[in-house]
């Protein structure tokens, strides 16, 4: 364990607020015709600014009240050709024949309760030249004039074919931005990041065809997100699902992962806690299954939350090769073995005080290792509950 020098510094003040939990229904969803009137203009997406709000309730909403249906102007813009981002603060049901080429943005509390039911339609932004242009759906917080962060909750996306990525975030697209860096100097950073981020975002019954990137990215501080009953295919130069720093209480369940990663694991739990990863099938686990770690000091940002109290239960990891197999589950996979671990400033908390991953109190039970030995579950901390995992001969 590496201890850093700890100067006395003034803490950043946090503004705390509360967001409402949403409840579910589809009665107000508008049905989109198969042949809408053509129109080129589309509402422009406003770029995210850096901001700050308060601590949210991390519990997952079980019921959601859908936002009123989208108006004709929004529907026409959505179905027109083009690649301009479109902001949605309403609910819509598409036709299975629809192909949407616009990135869709759910921003701020005004988007809370929005429901996108693709009904088999395709969201295709795979022609984009950058990762941002290939992001089909963004659910993000918005900076207000007073400097607080206005976060959406209860956004639902279902029954879609997505040729692109989905990204959910608050203070920043990832944990390395300036808002995250400044907030991380405060002892209450985790609560602030969670208050600033979307919650209870649900993606269900979706088919991903990832065009060389991370299909589902849960950004810093996001709570209560769910990816369920979904097929994750395509390719990724990174991982398939990323649970970023200070996020918590997310649910990755009943999914089929057929995606091929270039060299990394399928799910990264990076300083994220109290998540449930259950009953998934990982069809190509050769590069690794689920890794728990904490990116100490990356981007000069202090990582506060440890990857603890996660449940990894009832999953199947399939190995097609007998050689050079990487772990199905690896707790404490990094433990300070990165050169950026010393780039965060000296404070008496988080990765500033220790570069270790500190993946403790996690449960890894009832998982099947198909084609691989039981020692592909790697653990070095006695507080983790490991048991009932079985190796199955054959592929």
TrEMBL record:
Residues 1-24 form the signal peptide. Keywords: Signal. InterPro entries: Pectin_lyas_fold, Pectin_lyase_fold/virulence. It comes from the Bacteria. This is Right-handed parallel beta-helix repeat-containing protein.
């Amino acid at each position: 364990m590496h201890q850093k020098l700890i100067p006395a510094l003034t803490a950043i003040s946090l503004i705390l607020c509360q967001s409402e939990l949403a409840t579910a229904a589809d009665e107000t969803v508008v049905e989109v015709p198969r042949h809408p009137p053509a129109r080129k203009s589309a509402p422009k997406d406003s770029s995210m600014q850096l901001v700050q709000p308060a601590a949210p309730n991390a519990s997952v909403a079980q019921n959601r009240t859908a936002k009123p249906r989208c108006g004709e102007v929004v529907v026409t813009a959505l179905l027109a050709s083009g690649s301009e981002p479109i902001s949605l603060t309403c609910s819509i049901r598409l036709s299975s024949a629809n192909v949407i080429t616009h990135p869709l943005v759910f921003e701020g509390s005004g988007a809370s309760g929005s429901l996108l039911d693709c009904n088999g339609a395709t969201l295709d932004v795979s022609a984009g030249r950058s990762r941002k242009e290939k992001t089909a759906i963004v659910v993000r917080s918005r900076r207000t004039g007073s400097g607080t962060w206005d976060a959406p909750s209860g956004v639902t996306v279902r029954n879609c074919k997505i040729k692109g990525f989905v990204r959910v975030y608050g203070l920043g697209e990832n944990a390395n931005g300036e808002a995250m860096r400044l907030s991380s100097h405060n002892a209450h950073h985790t609560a602030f990041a969670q208050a600033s981020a979307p919650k209870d975002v649900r993606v269900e019954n979706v088919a991903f065809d990832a065009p060389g990137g991370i299909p589902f990215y849960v950004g810093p501080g996001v709570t209560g997100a769910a990816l369920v009953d979904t097929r994750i295919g395509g390719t990724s130069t990174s991982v398939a699902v990323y649970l970023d720093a200070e996020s918590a209480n997310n649910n990755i369940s009943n999914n089929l992962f057929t995606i091929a990663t270039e060299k990394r694991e399928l799910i990264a739990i990076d300083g994220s806690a109290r998540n449930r990863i259950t009953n998934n099938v990982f069809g190509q686990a050769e590069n690794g299954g689920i890794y728990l770690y904490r990116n100490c000091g990356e981007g000069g940002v202090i990582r506060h939350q440890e990857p603890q109290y996660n449940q990894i239960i009832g999953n199947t990891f399939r190995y097609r090769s007998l050689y050079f197999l990487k772990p199905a589950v690896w707790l404490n996979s990094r433990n300070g073995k990165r050169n950026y671990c010393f780039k965060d400033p000296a404070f008496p908390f988080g990765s500033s005080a220790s570069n270790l991953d500190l993946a403790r109190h996690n449960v890894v039970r009832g998982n099947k290792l198909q084609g691989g030995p039981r020692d592909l579950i790697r653990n070095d901390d006695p507080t983790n509950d490991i048991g009932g995992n079985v190796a199955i001969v054959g592929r």
